[in-house]
Amino acid sequence: MDSALMSLLGAFLLSLIGLFAFIWSMRxxxxxxxxxxxxxxxxxxxxxxxxxxxxxxxAQQPLRQAAAEAGExxxxxxxxxxxxRVAADRSSAFPVFMFIAFACMxxxxxxxxxxxxxxxxxxPDLLVNEAWMTFGRMRTIHLTAVLYGWISNAALGTIxxxxxxxxxxxLMGGVWVLLGGxxxxxGIASAIGAIGSGWTDGMEYLEIPWQIGLFIVAxxxxxxxxxxxxxxNRKVESLYVxxxxxxxxxxxxxxxxxxxxxxxxHTGVQQATTNWWYGHNVLGLWFTPVSVGAIYxxxxxxxxxxxxxxxxxxxxxxxxxxxxxxxxxxHLIGGPVPGWLTTLSIVQSMMMIIPVLAFTINMAGTMxxxxxxxxxxxxxxxxxxxxxxxxxxxxxxxxxxLRSINQVTHFTHFTVAHxxxxxxxxxxxxxxxxxxxxxxxxxxxxxxxxRLITLQFWLAAVGISIYFVGLSIGGWLQGMDMLDASKPxxxxxxxxxxxxxxxxxxxxxxxxxxxxxxxxxxxxxxxxGPQRAGAALFxxxxxxxxxxxx
Length: 550
Prior knowledge:
Layout: H1 3-28, H2 35-38, H3 60-67, H4 79-122, H5 135-167, H6 174-196, H7 210-232, H8 241-260, H9 268-303, H10 310-323, H11 339-351, H12 353-367, H13 378-400, H14 403-409, H15 413-443, H16 450-483, H17 489-494, H18 497-525
Helix pairs in contact: 4-5, 4-6, 4-15, 4-18, 5-6, 5-8, 5-9, 5-15, 6-7, 7-8, 8-9, 9-10, 9-12, 9-13, 9-15, 10-12, 11-13, 12-13, 13-15, 13-16, 15-16, 16-18
Protein name: Cytochrome oxidase subunit I profile domain-containing protein
Pfam family, one: COX1
Domain Cytochrome oxidase subunit I profile: 276-539
């Protein structure tokens, strides 16, 4: 049977299944709003009281006063439920600290490699004495360090901290999680060494040699087992939407990596198709669900209000799962691949507007009348910025898939700008906010220099703004020059130089923010500043001693 006919038939059958699933859910009442599920992240008495652990002591008061509504009385939290939360936090504290520490290390290494790569684009004679310093290897080291080292470690730390909390169950098999983290980071370190020496598998985002990839696969398997076992032994009735996103993300990335790294299977055109199937899905089915799930927890938790519509959050999850799988094919428009494949990818790219709008409407409804709280809460600032950039990067990606736009932006710096809008302005900023919220409760210590949090935010936000705007303009001009047959190719290179210089300026601000972030993390780990009264790593106190909000 013709492959195009098979794909159309498959899409028709999927639509029928979706129709019957919708009818079934209507009959079962599953689309009726579920305020109980939306409130599961709060212990009794916590709704209506804002909380941001990145704010120390008396600094919480302005946030709580600004969040309080007329006629509202504060109530103490339920000590029994807080005991479960304390036990969950303790069980995950050491694995979380390990993941975040590794993430900080790789963030610094990846940032330096990225800035060096950026400088080489307009200073080509910089650092050319050694093979590992060349642009091709340095850029790949940067990608591996930030995508697998920084983002994946920070994502795993966030997942391992949140799931026991949301399930109100101590983490089962914490030793296996530690072993998994050690295997993953052994693989990342080995991969960076291999790439520096010139040994790669030659596919973008999949440069890690498959022999080294075995360590990463084994690490994820070690982590998935305890996560699923903890899920099975949960003490809550309703699964909060963050659990859906995070458990699915762990399963998706493991499947994606295993299939993409199968040795000797993907060759020729199929290799390119698999490359972009994986390359886009690692963003959409790993980084995105982790970050969106984190926003769905931290943003309502900080402002003390349940998410506006729990059903919209579930709709966003399932439409992301259904529509994202084939989005990566739009990177192959004009290549030697079947036309139906790129058309299917374009259609699914446009369908991604649905989960993005579901998320945006939900967050806007949740924050309606409370946007001003970002003035007081540093974590909320990161979460709101990341959430807005999720909407912007996803909508831009959907329209960028259209052939009329793709023919200009493809093979240009515009695509690089778009990738950083998603991976940095959205994902990384959300992870920064999550770490600022988590670490006081993991390490039993306040952030010693609160003003550094604000400084780091503005350096990162201004840096990525300069980076994105500059590369977007330069990339568009580059694409227009490449399409103009009357102009020599070197014109398309020369036109980008000023914008590449602005890229380095933005990148320098981002690196400065990372140095501040990692330095602040080290100061906290080394016990500068005040001690925190709450459940945390190395804390010998009892659950009953926990103060409000822990």
